[in-house]
Records
---
Amino acid sequence: MSIMKKIMQWVMLSCKKATELIEKKLLTKLSFGEKVQLKMHESLCDACTAYEKQSKLMDQLLSKHIHSDGDSNKSDEVIENEELKKKIMEKIK
Amino acid sequence: MEDVKYQNDPAIVIKEWLDAYSDKMYSWCLYKTNSREIAEDLVQDTFMAAFQSIKKYEGKSDPKTWLFSILNNKIADHYRKMYRNPTVTESKIKQSSEASFFEAYFDSNGSWLKEQRPRSWRQEDGHLLDDKIFVKVLQSCMSKLPPDGYAAVQLKYLEGKKGEIICQELQISPTNFWQLLHRARLQLRRCLEINWFKK
């Protein structure tokens, strides 16, 4: 295989692999090589560029939605559960 | 004064806390777990733990803060367990669909299938959570994830912990964890697109 072909193969990530790197980027850090690969891929691929943008948005939404903080309860409706109180009192007695 | 109170009759204190906070805790837990049964169990476990260690508490912090910190630990534990012990049938399904999973998104060269190619969403701002209908869609999309994927997503955001720490706690390699998140992301993204962004 010619060197050029080898380089092209390394540069041309598949979209599947690119989305995997996007996930890795959001979780930890990419190596220098991976950063270059992803940049090159996204410069040619609108779909993966959109995918990364959407992944970041989903991350923002999920961390706000899930993040532990009992006081800033998003579902501001409080659901009463008298049965549960009784059950717990029984156990404690 | 406060200290004496907590030393004296834990049952009375717990009763007060139950009246003051248990509904809020239950609602919070229900929102986090999407299951009445699990939410009830976790709140109950929290109060039992509080009852047993009430002498250590001694009124040092706000009881609500204390109870919620116990509860949030219980919620994280619940997802760790869920991740570790998917039921037999679930892991079987996982194995058989592992290979075919990506076929729903990518062709054999790893390029996006034509109808799956991501395009910009009409609305890409962070205020979506103010929309109750969006939150419902998000929750229902989350609940469609396989249990290990669901648990992984919850754990990633639940305690704001770094990826490496979560992996240590779950005793899996970062590669496994991020590949699991990758699959969950693809599923969640598609579900949100169909049910919200392209509706």
---
Amino acid sequence: MSVVEQRPIGPGNAQVMSRFELTKRLVAKLPGEEAVIGGIGNTNFDLWCAGRRPQNFYMLGSMGLACPIALGVALAQPARRVIALEGDGSLLMQLGSLTTIAMLAPKNLIVVVMDNQSYQITGGQPTATAAGADLVTIARGAGIAQSTWAADEAMFDELVDKALKADGPWLIAARIDDQPGAGATDRDPVVITDRFMRGLGTKK
Amino acid sequence: MAAVGEAASDNRAWHEIVQATLKANDVRLVTYVPDNVLKPLIAGIHADPFFTVFAATREEEALGIVAGAWMGGMRGILLMQTSGFGTLANVLASLPVAFQIPVLMMISERGTLGEFNLGQALVCRTMRPVLSALAVEHHTITRLDEVEFIVDRSIKQAVATRAPAALILSPLLTGGKVFKA
């Protein structure tokens, strides 16, 4: 029986965790080949501070496109695990992308959502998840059956381990606190593209 | 490939030429928000297993998918209508232009030469100014004998210079969408 079936968790009873701590846990599980697309804002800043990897793509602008970009990489490189790391505000902007992911069902795609129920970087205005919108329920409704909340850090680890091994697509959501990002990314897009493509082996 | 003017014996329709030219340039990923004028092109691409083809929910999403696929080593194009292009200014600037990713765009032009919907006519006026403001290479295809040349050369230039490109299909080429009173 899967962890999902054993422990039905919602945004109301999941532990509120630290985004930077979870991001560090995630990155520590990636030996090197997995691609990570960091959505804009604090999600991206924490990914940057959790340790630079050439397989990480750090977005600058184009809010909401972490999932689509990750889907594109996943379609181009089916042998590589691809992770979209996204915030609640960004995902809400492009909810339709969940239906496209479900329709194509790429086995190598994992969406990790950090939900602090706010547009934190612009002053903490509440998102719709603060009023009860449940991103996991939405993702399941979109057709991503393997969508679940992480109840705590141990379950987050467990879910990431599983998603890195078993066929996806997966969506893992975590309730996080309102700590600001641990730093800021470099802001040179051409360098980011160059490093990422070398990391993926598509540029020599 | 024949230069413009040398293709007079080509009996293919515009969409058959586009499909063959995408294939010849290894553009495998096609994602679209559908449009009536694009219907035969979309149908032809769906019928050819060479392509990975599917509808996206929004043009912004489609652009992100094509950008990701390029970085992963697969060339792609997004197909849309003028009104769909009208939603793209922000992501066009902040993703393919800023990151130097050759996202290819094909736009079925609405809003001109017999348009019956005022909204389409108005949004059409923003398309070329947005492309020009971002210095995105763009060509309007009006004649059958120039389809292959413009599509082929635009793809090659986009890839070689790592720059997005837009190909606008004029009603002069496609017949456009006609108002039936």
---
Amino acid sequence: MTCLTIDIALSRPASKRRGTFRSHLCTRFAGPGIYGISGPSGSGKTTLLRCLAGLEPSATGTLWRDDECWLDSGRGIHLPPQRRQVGLVFQDARLFPHLNVGDNLRFAHRRAHSDQTLAFDEVIDWLGLRPLLASPVQQLSGGEQQRVAIARALVNAPRVLLMDEPLTALDSASRKALLPKISELPARFNMLMVYVSHDEEQIAALCDRVIDLTNTNGTLSGESC
Amino acid sequence: MISADAPTLSAADWQAVWLTLSLAGATTLLLILFSTPLAWWLSRTSSRWKNVIEAIVAVPLILPPTVLGFYLLVLFSPDHFVGYWWLQISGNTLAFSFTGILIGSIIYSLPFAVQPLLNGFEQFNRQYLEVASTLGAKPADQFFNLVLPVTRSSFLTAAGLSFAHTIGEFGVVLMIGGNIPGETRVLSIALFDHVEVMNYGAAHWLAAGMLLTSFVVLLLISTLRPGREYRV
């Protein structure tokens, strides 16, 4: 069982499109299972995931995975993304353009976070990627690209899998095909997942617990904080 | 045109060919090693010095080579601390030496290496680095296994342009290298010598050889360039 203990301030300076954004999140995710983060655009969903992944150097607060400290801004601790053992699937697949599908997966598998690596072949077969292994990533459809991106994160054997609107850019047929796969993930691979979406139906269909970031320009507290 | 009884290349000319290729090869290698971190830094920094550094790098594009050569000659003189220091540690002067013209070539061709690399790095989608870091790739791993292969066409262009541009160098070498066979007498100077003594036959061979080399290098850059299909 993996547990994330989160007490962080999310903020973003004002830009041309949006004003200053500040909120405070204090909660605990314990899994396997899927935790949903919902809220309108601009409410800090993506910023939260980036903080969890270690991609926001300006994040403040504290963040623990089990007894490992990822962030403690007071003590100057900021564990880099490479050492957090998280997988992050973005809205766009971001497959490496110089590698074909198989090499994209091998890139992640060679750098796997733990020795208990998920069986490479099992992930490929589960997501139906075997016929695509030799294909250049530019030739894939949106749905195929996103399946490869999920597989790439999985063969990297993360302890926590973060997903940032992975279905938003897809057509409804691909979305319908991929949704059950995502819902199967935590049980199948014994994994804690944090799933961000502005689509309440998706969140309701997938998630065991939901945190709504709407109207959190103050403090939001979840359980066990 | 080359007449039927035109003399072909002499041993001294072949020495100049070899010297020029050595100079161009060494310049290209050192320029890539030096320009890669510089261009990477320029592509990422928001420092207010960025524009100043970019302008300094670009100066050799418009500066008359003789001006660059003149300042280097002054710098290389044993009266100057740089030239003096070099004389103390190596026992030789920098002026009128292969090392001297190598330094001159590196400065003279710097924009031809930095600019293509900078363009490549600026077009490189940084989001790939975020993915790679969550996959456990450390910064050096990210650079060699992601940035380098995705931007390899920029490296090819930078290397090709640096090589071809060094072959065409004349003013800088003349100012700081003079005309010492086997040390600083490069092809463009050998060509000048032949023209001065009206030896047009040999001059034609050298000129046509350099023209062809420049053309082939540019052709190679445009045909070998991979990665056009990448959405970087």
---
Amino acid sequence: MDMPAKAKQFPLPSSLKVVPGTERAQAAYPYYTQFEAGDDQRFWFYNSMHFPEPMSAFDMVTAEAAYCALGSANTRVHCLPTTLGIDHRIINGRVYIGGNAVTDPTEIARRLEEFKQRAFYYYANWERLYDQWREKMLALIKSAQALPTPQLPDLEPLANVHAGRGIASNHTLLDTYQKTLEGYFRMWHHHFEFLLLGYGAYLTFFDFCKKAFPEITDQTIARMVAGIEAEIFRPDDELRRLARCAVELGIDPHFDKQLSATQLIETLRTEGEAGRAWLKELEISRHPWFNINVGDGFYHYHRAWNDDLSMPFASLPDYIARVKAGESLHRPVEKLLEERKQLIEDYRELLTTEEERAAYDQMITLAHRVFPYVEGHKFYCEHWYTNLFFNKIREFGALLAEHKFFGDAEDVFQLTHYELESAIIDLMTAWSNGSAPRGPGHWPKLVAERRAAIREWAKHETPPALGVVPDVIDDPAIVMLWGITRESLNTWLSTGADSDPNELKGFAACRGVVEGTARIVKSVDEISRLQKGDILVCQVTNPSWAPIFGKISAAVSDIGGSMSHAAIVAREYGLPAVVGTGNGTSRIKDGQRIRVDGGRGIVTILG
Amino acid sequence: MIGWLADLGLADRPQVGGKGGSLGELARAGIAVPPGFVVKTAAFERFLESAESEAPLRALVASVDPDSLADVTALSQQLRARIEAAPLPQDLAAAIERAYRKLNESHQAAVAVRSSATTEDAADASFAGLQDTYLWVQNLEQTLDKVRSCWGSLYSVASITYRRRHPFAERDVAMAVVVQTMVDARTAGVMFTRSPLTGDRSVMAIEGSWGLGSAVVGGEVTPDRWVVGKITGEISVREISDKQIRHVPLSEGGIQSVAVDESQRRIPCMSDAELEALRVIGRKVERHYGRPQDIEWAVDRHSGAILLLQSRPETVWSSREVAPVGRPVDDPSLHVLKIFGGFNR
């Protein structure tokens, strides 16, 4: 193979320095997540897909719990023949990950036999196991909801004493915390029970299509597989339903008054039967469908619609206006299903032999079988459960703040999960002994230091990858989940000397060409800056952003493939979109005019 | 002796030649083609009969030595001169005149006079390009001349040599002539109903440029190029090139190459809506024939209508043996080993 004369390399982990002044904040992360000397021999990449912003000490539990569950599913449960789990390291609040490939042919052969007995069983019994999965998840959610609000009474309630409970309330704190943490780790095991197998079956069909139709676009294959009635559309569907309800009940004028969500609810509550009827409908929608957060659920500050109604309410006036203009706002499910069926049949007809058609039928059937899980699990895991989890931790934050450990309940997220347990035990002990807890003298300074460190880290760009570049990347987990290939690494390595500095390439997510003003939205708080017709430029989007898709004219994201949520929602809205540009949010400047060519996956900066 | 395109089909090829049959087949399938008629092989036979009453013609061809270029050239010159000078039998001239007048009933338009040999455009032995086509023929008199020129082109050096080297019986070789209204094209080009690069049957490759299609077919201009999803209509490739020249008809007949206006050179010569219309036409033609096609098309400058000038079976990829992309397996789960099994390693 010809190598360029000056092959560019990624920096070694050992050359990546902790930002000066943040060393103590860096040291707070567990020892097993710190880079060590041997790590220079391996290849690592920055997981900006899931963790695009520096992670606070507590939020890192998501990386830990997720990789623990992903690894056990791959390595020991399903026994993927060629790959084990994923190691993670943290520097400057950024999560770097590296896969563990299996290369020994004998070991691959051994694991292959195991895989057939395990994974094939899942494929053969998918529906039953998935039904069972949903039951498990709902039970897990129920048990998380049943956990008590952590609190410490002055004296143990008399009822507890007379009941002979024999356990004091301070123990309940530890019990609740440990169950909260245990539940989160358990949830991630459920999350990965089917995920890789699901992606694998989808990619099998994808691979077949790319061979049979070398010039087929990714989004066409995605359209053949994607579910029509998937849970990801439900929250937005509920908003549309509420808009129709508001018009039917004749309370729609209240939505034009620029009231805050709280003011609006208060107005409706006092405004007679119709207002209260709508609020009843709102409650039906909220539980569970507003348990969707405004991010990917990996950061504590990605709050759920249920916790902050301003996001869902912001789109109601527009939906109401459309209902009044005569639109039904119903998703044409039957029509969409029919279109998908036709698309699959039309491509089938293009195959040249009956043999190929039979193989195609088997693969699309398998892909359709697994895909409800691939699309549906996120609502239960990353949204509903994660919201419950972070809110429970928030309750601990409130209790600790009440006892002067912190100035603000949100400070709790600056502690690692180990540190939080120690703070809880500190409080338990002090309550037991009738003495003052040590926390108030210990945590405030550390919390301030860590908050400052995160602000500092956010100012520094971090390399997309570190260490030795492998010749081949065929780790199915990494290719599937992160879309990383040797080709994409070469793109990361290219300086731009041989490429147009005004052009960004990504995945073509939804066709159409649009020019407009770029609005860089780096966090959810900035969503309100979007004006009608703007082009959204963001790191990653998720289903809860769907309502704003009615407002923008195109979308560009740093992260994501053709099956990412941004891509699915963009196609649903017929909005030109380019996803996975890598660095759109840093190369495009806010307010610049850009052209998005969603059919080709190209974004051009016009100036 | 005359047949109208709209009434013809592939089955009529022995009487109307490959081009006539193919255009008729398109017209009958509901595809817009420029209106026209075919001077059938019976007319050729009638003409030849009249010419051979003075001196033999076919017998000379059947006995010439194809390896002697000098002999073939001399014979070709002699026969073509004879054919072009021979008077048309009265009944034949009258039939062509009636058809010509009918074609030009609504408005006086230039016509294309195109050879349509009975051996031409056969998928297995392509005669394409061996016979003549005359564009922008202005009036009846010229049309009658060009019909004879087309007949004469059956006796070109290349045609005679080709025929003598292949197993065609000279008495079975006949020539029909298509007389068709010219399209004054705003844009014209070619379309393959599969990818010429990868053979992918799910896309169509469209190339087009300003003016008449001859500039594209003759390679005199780098055309705009699009790849369109056959089923989805998605435009996955758009290459808009600098189109420096275009072909335009000359008032006295024939074609002229002129510079494209600066403002037009780098803009797409087809709108997305036109590409979509072309996709639908291409798919219809392909379905009609049951195999990928190689199509010439034009957009009428005045009406904006898209017309097909020709459609032939695609031959390059169709003749390749391709290993099946996949086979059914007893347990569908086995398919996933392509992804998980490390077989790509």
